[in-house]
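Regression report. Comparing outputs from two consecutive submissions.

Submission 1:
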Amino acid sequence: MSICKHIVPLMFLAIMLSGNIRKENAMNDQRHAVLNDGPYLIYDGTLLHVKYIAAEKDAKVLRHDSMSIDRKAGLPLRVNTDIPGMTFEVRIKDKIVNEKSEYKKASRQLIMSDIEGNFAAFRKLLQSAGVVDERLEWTFGDGHLVLAGDFFDRGNQVTETLWLIYALEEKARKSGGHVHFILGNHDIMNMSADLRYLNPKYLENARLMHVDYTSLYGSDSELGRWLRSKNIIEKIGGNLYVHGGISRQMNSVGWDIPEINEKARPFYPDTTYRYPNIQTEVLFSDYGPFWFRGCYMPSPDFNRQVLDSTLQQFRIQRVITGHTPIADTVSAFYDGKLINVDTPHAKGNSEALLLEGGGMFVIRPDGYRAAFVF
């Protein structure tokens, strides 16, 4: 009995210590995410400036290196993750070209959206689905990673998340796979100086770097040039991927998928809201592909007939979106012809959709995998 009397308090103490350690680690991870940022690559004539914010004794310190643009090709960068001390390498692209709009059916597709700077959720989902390994190297073979918009704002590690996507693109290509980064409203807002949802950390860091925040994603920045190469709508096999959805008004515009991307791209950084025609106005309005929410709420601008018209017009079987929070899970509507992958990552309810071997599966960060039934 005397032994048991000692064991119970010791067990309780161990549990308390374990909980305290987890809390301390979480706080350290949070400080790490808040204090570090970058790198940002800015072009200035024949020079390339590399700027980043580093943590020193719980304070932010600006680091700034410059080099000739001739040294850019293949330049290796080390980028932080959500885990203190863990980094990954990024090789700067020789050139940036605009993405294609349409692709053949892929053997495997992992689809997620609305990460909004939550690097930890992004990393865990990628690892759980077998897209990357512990070192964040591509392990998905010829599979396609589809990111349906909104990787900016709110979170503490937007920059790191963008660089991971950037790095995975080339690694996927070498394995016969592909990374699709389809822009959402938050991504375009940050290019066009609409910063209403921006984490205050980034305005503070821009001041430390003595630049206007939007210049970090301007046409003279590496990430800005890269973002301008992305699409707002893509087709892979029989699936149409778009951040918000396709409205009745968008169907009436009559443009095909490549035309939509071609017409939209010049206006990503636009701050005037002056468009050359009514079709482009629709594209950037609440009825456009990256803003429309009517797919998931009562709306005269969307119903089964509108969806069927979309399927017919774009010659697809289903539309997959993010953007509109509906539930804590990936959700299907209209007999699976419309799927929403927006889940609340910041609240710990992260999910992604895996298409593999003719089946559909829900993936969670803890290794959970189950058939997606609708």
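Submission 2:
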Amino acid sequence: MLALLLSVNILNYVDRQIVYALLPLISSDLHLSDAQAGSLASAFMIVYMLAAPPIAWLADSRGRKPWIAAGVGIWSLATGAAGLASGFISLFFSRAAVGIGEACYGAISPAFVAERFPSEKRGSALAIFSLAIPVGSALGYAGGGKLGEILGWRHAFWVVGLPGLLLAAVCLLLPNDKPHAATPAPVDGYRAVWGVRSFRLMTFAGAGMTFALGGFAVWMPTFFHRSWGLSVGDAGLRFGAVTVLAGLTGSLLGGYLSDRLRRKNRHADLVVSGWGLLLGMPLAAAAISAPTFHASIACLFLAETMLFLNMGPLNAAIVSVIPLEKRSMAFAANIFVIHLLGDAASPALIGWGSDHFGLTAALLSTCLALGVGGSMCLLARADFAGDSDAALPPPAGARA
């Protein structure tokens, strides 16, 4: 089950990120400004975050497997449709449709995975599941850039969209999970989830991280292309290689550290996540302002390693403070807020900043969001223990 959902999640990030490796080719062909190019990411994120809350409530109350399978099929068809775009508007709406499919998966699959592992192994399990972020992103950047150079950007979309239809069929073989009879009405459920203070702070932490990472994901290949004279294919390949190596290192290390430290420190997930973000901030700034390409690559690897430490631990912390019957809703609320305050806006804002002040200055200002995210993680420790105890199911035989 974990291997299948990891494979699907890898494809999730391939389809999500490939457009950014292809941006120079798409912009040249369709005559897009940087602001228009950045808004393609915003189109996906806005739909993704708006679709997640109602889908998550339906999945918690009626079962998750059908939504997972349907979501994979929808986003794969929408990815292929991007290759048929005749201009900015049609490309914009095809990327928005990808957000509908990925909302079905992103809001549901972390809870589906977490519920099948005991708490002492949950950080590592979710870290493995989160390996899809660097691996899929790297394949999207590196493979997308090379496919774009060899086949053209339209064919690149078709090549990566096709495997999703097969994986959607395989997802129908996942084990059935029973709907939760205790799932509250949507408004009551989301009000209860948002009422958990540590969850709110963790969500704001995720927003800070997502603001920065979302902006970097869109614009770093273009930054390499413009600042260091790399071809589109080489820029995507190098950024993808750094991302996959740092992501594998950071995700596995973060899951291992949090599971190990949790034996002595109940706040281990938040400590690992918070300090990773705080240490990643100056390293990211160094990568953007480095005097040589090799120094930029080295700092980028260290920065991404620190940022990826939180991928498993922060999700595990969210699971810990939310009751079973509301977990998909919690991840949906998390998705909504982190993208509303994060990468729904940052790519377009960076594009606007690039048009007016230059891409380097726009990317440097984005690093400040990482400091905000790290601080929110550390602040969440004050309420984490009490919120975790409140989320535990009542003892067997206890009255409601």
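Expected: both submissions complete independently.
Actual: both completed, but the second showed a warning that disappeared on reload.
Relevant detail on submission 2: The chain has 20 helices and no strands.
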